[in-house]
Amino acid sequence: MNTSSTYNVVIFLNSTFYTNSLDQIIEPLISNQSAIVYLFNIHNQEKLDLTHWEKKNNNIKVEEITSQFVPPTLTEETLVIDALFGFELQHPLSGGFAAVARLINSSKSTVVSIGAPSGLFPEDNTTNNLNHIIKANYTILTEEPPLACYFDENQPFLGQWNILPINPKKEEDLVPFTSEEEVIDIIKPRRRFSHKGTYGHGLLVAGSLGMAGACSMAASASLKSGIGLLTIHTPLCNRAIHQVSTPEAMVDCDTNEICFSQLLDTTGYKAVAVGPGLGLAEESATALQHLILQCDELGTPLIIDADGLNILANYPHLYRNIKGAILTPHPVEIERLIGKCNNSYIRLNRAIEFAKKFEVFIILKDAYSFVICPDGSYQLNPTGNEGMATGGSGDVLTGILLALRAQGYSQEECIKLGTYIHGKAGDLAALEVGKIGMTAQDIIKYLPKAWKELSETALKYNGFNLFSNSTN
Ligand SMILES: NC(=O)C1=CN([C@@H]2O[C@H](COP(=O)(O)OP(=O)(O)OC[C@H]3O[C@@H](n4cnc5c(N)ncnc54)[C@H](OP(=O)(O)O)[C@@H]3O)[C@@H](O)[C@H]2O)[C@@H](O)CC1
Ligand SMILES: Nc1ncnc2c1ncn2[C@@H]1O[C@H](COP(=O)(O)OP(=O)(O)O)[C@@H](O)[C@H]1O
Ligand SMILES: [K+]
């Protein structure tokens, strides 16, 4: 058998592969280059006949693989096309296919996977053999992406992925995303005859010595998301900072110089958010426990983020007292609550179990954030970008959520609309200043524009829900 060093393109093709993808995707990739097709005619399948390719193009050679085969030489210049398996696989690659995966992965060739990086399962890869999954530089998906495409750890297999929907999925099989239609149905107009009281008084419990910034950014985001009145509860040392950075907010100073320590009365507040930059001091842990119990007793809507979650994780008996709260963990924070997880699929499922068990709403933050309801349903948020991978971005989200809860949006409305607008503001910032230089403050800066654009879309498409019950 020829070694492939003389071929520019090496194609590993399984006879079960959709033939329409062959002509639509693989042929154009080969173009006029010399190519060899290693054709695996799998048992019980009709033999795939590619003689028409050979006839059409003298540069294409087809080699049918029935048993052992001499592996081709794959160089840096070779283009490898992986057309072995799509997302239908239920068992890890084994035997010859596993050997092909290892061969490809140990090469420096450019790899394009069609349908899926062969070997990757569509959702749960817990039982997979990760060494037997082809690592592509590019993946051309022939149907809408399954859940696995939205998990960080699968990106080395997928490479840069794009969708060419040759075999579109049924609506019910699609990964659920929050849509713009959904959020414009949620967003409510401001009433002409309204006043600051109409839009709620929120309490932000945040900040400590050295972390005034987290509090400041959450506060600014609240103020730029329509809250009526905002009070910041923060340690004494940060008083001047907040009076200057957000003069619109009132500052209620803790008796402690450097951290949150006071037992608070939440009467009169429409919502409370706790956690950004709070620190982990013992006094703060005691004060937080009191705050959680107080909100539970009074039915005050509660949002818990950052160090609020980190402290909570040390007091599992309090999980029973956070019913109805919104939690906004990043992957490391959620694992403090649900235990270490081996992969994103397990983490998502344990987060869902946590939401169901303790009747909480969770925003599992990441490149694609999941919003999870206590009934176990979830949606992915479609907005946002990698420019938001910068300190303080999450604090901004907490501020937005506080503003929305204070304005009377339900938890479910709040998590969907809040994550959507947070990502949209990030997208507008990226558009204007670029992803490298943008900071969390840029997300805040573009929040008003994001709200404006979304409101205008709502007005245009659904009359801004003028006939639904508006705020309060
Ligand atoms: N200006 C201010 O005042 C600011 C104050 N802040 C306040 O700091 C406090 C501590 O919060 P925290 O989030 O920085 O620390 P922690 O919870 O230990 O975890 C962070 C580590 O987890 C990891 N990691 C892995 N994957 C990840 C992912 N997808 N998303 C996120 N993280 C991921 C990653 O580790 P690595 O991958 O680098 O090993 C990362 O370093 C909290 O109160 C917060 O409000 C900040 O908001 C910043 C601005
Ligand atoms: N690559 C990314 N793409 C989209 N959103 C991102 C990305 N990286 C981070 N984000 C968003 O930015 C926020 C980061 O939150 P978090 O980790 O709590 O930051 P911090 O604690 O510094 O405020 C989350 O809402 C997350 O979804
Ligand atoms: K494939």
TrEMBL record:
Entry keyword Methyltransferase: no
InterPro entries registered for this protein in UniProt: Carbohydrate_kinase_pred_CS, CARKD, Nnr, Ribokinase-like, YjeF_N_dom, YjeF_N_dom_sf
Gene name linked to the record: nnrD
Annotated Gene3D superfamilies: 3.40.1190.20, YjeF N-terminal domain (3.40.50.10260)
Residues involved in (6S)-NADPHX binding: A214, G277, H330, D395
Subunit structure: Homotetramer.
Protein name: ADP-dependent (S)-NAD(P)H-hydrate dehydratase
Function: Catalyzes the dehydration of the S-form of NAD(P)HX at the expense of ADP, which is converted to AMP. Together with NAD(P)HX epimerase, which catalyzes the epimerization of the S- and R-forms, the enzyme allows the repair of both epimers of NAD(P)HX, a damaged form of NAD(P)H that is a result of enzymatic or heat-dependent hydration.
YjeF C-terminal domain sequence ranges: 179-454
